Amino acid sequence: MTWEEMNPLLWEATGQTALMVLWSTLFTVLLGLPLGVALVVTDRGGLLPSRLLNRVLGLIVNIGRSLPFIVLMIAVIPLTRLIVGTTIGTFAAVVPLTLGAAPFFARLVETALREVGRDTVQAAQAMGAGRWTIIGKVLLPEARSGLVAGLTVTVVALISYSAMAGVIGGGGLGDLAIRYGYQRFETTLMIVTVVVLIVIVQLVQTLGDVIARRLARH
Amino acid sequence: MIDVSGLHKVYQDRGRRVEALKGVDLHVREGEIFGVLGQSGAGKSTLLRCVNLLERPTSGTVSVAGQELTALGEAELRRARQRIGMIHQHFALLSSRTVAGNVAFPLEVMGVGRAERAARVAELLELVGLADKAGAYPAQLSGGQKQRVGIARALAGRPSVLLSDEATSALDPGTTQSILALLKSLNRELGLTILLITHEMHVVKGICDSVAVMRDGLIEESGGITELIARPGSSLAAELFPLPAPESGAVTITFTGRADEPVVSEVVRKFDVDVSILGGALEEVAGVSAGRLRVRITGDERDAALGYLAARDLLVEVAP
């Protein structure tokens, strides 16, 4: 395969990966952040302790995290049809990607929020702050460096999950590597694809690290 | 100003029952600095947290500024807390906010508008001497500066009461003195009532008008600090003026506010006795000098001499 042949394939696949990762990152945050907050506030000694809710949420998160992504992707096909209207293609992949990453991100959110001192929360309570104020103005801002670090890890995981999206016709770089590189023995394309993936992951991680470090400075 | 009565607090910790407060009564008068002194584990921190209901007492009532907090609903309690300032041992500042942002936080909670907030923050920072640090982050400040931010923040809602949770325990001696001086001046100038808990005698000695000694979930003794020292068998006096265990017959004289009276030489002149000094300590307490003197009195007129001392309104204790 020549460069001229590879180029359009690579661009298309990179675009598909970017699309999948960006959309699923957005939905992962929308789903995982509240879930992580809920895990912390419903815990014993939290702002709104509820043993039952905490157990149920914990169980859901653990189930989500223990399913292999490839199994999850097939298992949620009915849900994907319900939400997207189709079960194949790049957008269809966003549903399982989100469901796979949200529980993972929720645990990272939980860990980041637990780093906020009990002192700090109690001080806000002593000033008469309500639960929502404490979540919005104390817990989340104080944990922001940890949240960014968690998000970075999640985005990298999403890039890696998205490589499996070829199974449901999602396309992307992983799919390209399998179809051309592996099944058609296009070793050069395979290597180029892997290099592109490495560069993307490297960029995401570096950017995340820089932001997290800047936020942690204070 | 603060009335606590019949306070019990029981924790259930993995099936184990821990009784942190075993029936505590506390009365803090308006405008005074009241210190609760005790070792860690004595229950003083729990007591303080019960005053603004960060901890719900198992039974008993708490009133602050005439309002019974234990009877309030959640929303009313939040409003009441806005009028009770609190400062913390480890400052509990928001690391993601600047000094000005930290002081503005309680004002945001109260719903104060942006312009008024900025004016009030500037005023508060001026008050605690940190006007030039408004844009700094807590990580850039020294311990003493952090506690000043904590104090400014606690005063934002113009509270009538300030609760201090070991506010100087994490500070070095020099900084401790400057924070105590600041608290004392706030007490004088704003008429702020302060309830502080501490395990450090010098805090009580330095700024408290009244004191309660806590041990094992109970208040052992409480009252005006000079009055307490003059009370027979006072553990506060024993701790404040540490003297070795007395030999049999040794006389301990405790005096408050009259350190310059020549009582010993008077006794020697008036009675046929010898006085030898075994030990003594003198301290400035609540603005007056107070002390204890341990002496041995021998001679024929020993009893008369002791009677004379007791009649002079000094606390005279004779070791058995």
Topology of this protein?
The complex is a heterodimer of chains A (218) and B (320).
Chain A: H1 3-41, H2 51-66, H3 69-75, H4 77-84, H5 90-114, H6 118-126, H7 131-142, H8 144-162, H9 173-182, H10 187-216
Helix pairs in contact in A: 1-5, 1-8, 1-9, 2-5, 3-5, 4-5, 5-8, 6-7, 8-10, 9-10
Chain B: E1 2-13, E2 16-28, E3 33-37, H1 44-51, E4 59-64, E5 67-68, H2 74-81, E6 84-87, H3 99-110, H4 114-127, H5 143-155, E7 161-165, H6 173-190, E8 193-198, H7 201-207, E9 210-215, E10 218-224, H8 225-229, H9 235-240, E11 251-256, H10 263-270, E12 274-285, E13 288-298, H11 302-311, E14 315-318
Parallel strand pairs in B: 3-8, 3-9, 6-7, 7-8
Antiparallel strand pairs in B: 1-2, 1-4, 4-5, 9-10, 11-13, 11-14, 12-13
Describe this structure in words.
The complex is a heterodimer of chains A (218) and B (320). Chain A is mostly helical. Helices cover 80% and strands 0% of the residues of chain A. Chain A is built from 10 helices and no strands. Chain A starts with a helix and ends with a helix. The mean pLDDT of chain A is 92. The mean pLDDT of chain B is 91. Chain B is of the alpha/beta class and 320 residues long. In chain B, the strands form 3 sheets. A 6-stranded mixed beta sheet of chain B has the order 6-7-8-3-9-10, sandwiched between helices. Chain B has a 4-stranded antiparallel beta sheet with strand order 2-1-4-5, covered by helices on one side. In chain B, a hairpin with a 2-residue loop joins strand 1 and strand 2. Chain B: It comes from Planobispora siamensis. Chain B: Part of the ABC transporter FtsEX involved in cellular division. Has ATPase activity. Chain B: Belongs to the ABC transporter superfamily. Chain B: GO terms for molecular function: ATP binding; ATP hydrolysis activity.
